[in-house]
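Changelog-adjacent note: as of this version, every example in the card shows the full chain rather than a window. The one below runs 458 residues end to end.
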Amino acid sequence: MPPAKPKQIRLNAFDMNCVVHQSPGLWTHPRDRADSYNTFDYWVGLAQLLERGKFDALFLADVLGIYDVYGGGSEMALEQAVQVPVNDPLMVVPAMAHATTNLGFGVTCSLSYEHPYPFARRMSTLDHLTNGRIGWNIVTGYLESAAKGMGQVTQPDHDTRYEIAEDYMDVVYKLWEGSWEDGAALRDREARRFADAGKIHRIHHDGPYFQMDAIHLCEPSPQRTPLLFQAGASTRGRAFAARHAECVFINGPSPQIIAPIVADIRAKAAAYGRNPAEIRIFTMMTVITAPTTKAAQDKLAEYRGYVSEEGALALMSGWTGVDFAKLGPDDTVQYGKTNSMTSALEAFTISDPSRKWTVREIAQHAAIGGRGPVVVGSPAEVADEMQAWMAATYVDGFNLAYAVTPETFSDFVELVVPELQRRGVYKTEYAPGPLREKLYGPGRARLPAEHPAARMRR
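Full-length structure tokens:
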């Protein structure tokens, strides 16, 4: 019997349309180009680099609102450019798609602040323009400042946001999957008929949070429903991911925290009647590499000379809802219920009882790579560590954040990708077809029959 093939590693690059994403202060490094985030040259160059490295997708984070928890105000976030200014992630995708052929694009869009009717059109438009390479990272938001910016007194509580999300998903599934039948768009020039009106259906929805009576404004796109990402690792978020998501992004500083989350999501997916093996789970990692161990360690030391630990605490305060400015540097961080990103606080408190984190340790950890681990070493050492994480956690791959951009990504493409390919754990060519087919195989451009969206089809 031939030996089993090693599990293939899936990779997304993790970025955001802003100056500081996960490594506060490092935009000041002389080789960093993050402050050119508002140019096409930055994004097109990054997309072409990632496609050269055979990355599955560029995963674009987003946030609506400002990190104003730390110190009770937004001064630190503004001065340190902590995810502000932040531009719309969707606007840069068409330019990148036009400059590439295979790279996918996962865009983060909060469903809390946009009605599903116009949003469904935006995603169908992107699926058309990318030739089926678009994915949606479904989030519900976590910043009070976002709710206030949208004219609300406060955001709904954490679990209620997911109840709203369930109703939202029913609406967009109906639009994407049930409004236009296959073959409705005729493009019949001789008969002067673009579409068969009998195959286009009005969608009626009367849910607890959304009401709609409309026809979807777009003809069917290559995937119809975009590839569905989800980035919520709280108990309620995992249940939502297990029901809806195809790719799940989770986050934590160690395998001990990640492994139980992976197992729980897969078990919940099976309970919903889905194939748990088909849930692609990614965890965040930042890789700092060089041809030798010493050179990689020297690079990390160089980077640390530019970090902003106070900026990191402003970031962590926004994620967790805890004002770290009120705590001493050697205080141990305790778990408490907040209305922010529940999983962020759990990861540094109750998820691993054997590890107690002080404020100082969190600041140092989050200053490069945010909440995820930082792996430093030669290409072989990095590959060893990635394979060890795969074996210990059963994740399918990694969302790779950067310390210095695009240097972190170019180092990985030039040094680590060839090592992974040599070991037979990373693709040498892209699979054909839309993004969903690239992940799941030929004939899988659309969601499978067991997915809840399939109920909406004619």
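Structural remarks: The CA atoms of residues 333 and 358 lie 6 Å apart.
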